[in-house]
Write a structure and sequence with these properties.
It holds the Pfam family CYTH. The chain has one domain: Hypothetical Protein Pfu-838710-001 (Beta Barrel), CATH 2.40.320.10. Helices cover 25% and strands 48% of the residues. The protein has four helices and nine strands.
Length: 183
């Protein structure tokens, strides 16, 4: 069965207040783990073009393990059909992606802390060049309406009672924009 990952993302304004609110809601976060991601896009796609319906690749390294993921946005960039697998050789996977018509876009480096709130996964990320973010996500059947699920996730985040700024861009877009502004 095809799975869909649906998420909402927030720029964290007051991290200490967020940590207290999460603890008050029974969410305990893991220790930070470094994730290094290389994002890939089809050679014909470029930033500024719509992402809906376009497959994007990611090659992630976490503690020596390499994960290859393909995400295809459905309702929006935060509701994606997703397939993921462990790969033994990141360099060979990179070469395979090039041969399949993908090109590397940006690298995303982050320290990620994870937790759970019921069936939802939470990630508190410190993203290099762009700062702290909270992601709330769930995996559903491919035909689940992404916008409705995002509304539920957003209601939970709003219920935390802390200042968060909802963003609709993915990390690759945010990192690319930050890098453009720093040059």
């Amino acid at each position: 069965m095809e799975a869909q990952e649906i998420e909402v993302k927030y720029r964290v304004i007051e991290q200490d207040a967020l940590l207290r609110a999460l603890a008050d809601h029974g969410v305990s976060l893991s220790a930070p783990v470094l994730q290094e991601d290389q994002a890939y896009a089809p050679v014909w796609w470029d930033y500024g073009k719509p992402k809906t319906g376009v497959p994007f690749g990611r090659l992630r390294t976490v503690q020596g393990t390499h994960l290859f993921t393909v995400k295809t946005p459905q309702d929006n960039e935060m509701a994606c059909l997703e397939a993921e697998t462990v790969v033994n050789d990141a360099e060979q996977m990179h070469e395979a992606l090039l041969q399949m018509g993908f090109r590397p876009t940006v690298q995303i480096v982050k320290a990620r802390r994870t937790g759970r709130a019921g069936r939802w996964s939470l990630c508190l990320d410190e993203v290099e060049d762009v700062g702290p973010f909270l992601e709330i996500e769930t995996v559903t059947a491919a035909d689940e309406p992404g916008l409705a699920v995002q509304a539920q996730l957003d209601a939970w985040a709003t219920g935390l009672g802390v200042k968060l700024e909802r963003v609709t861009d993915t990390y690759d877009s945010l990192v690319r924009l930050a890098q453009q502004h720093s040059t």
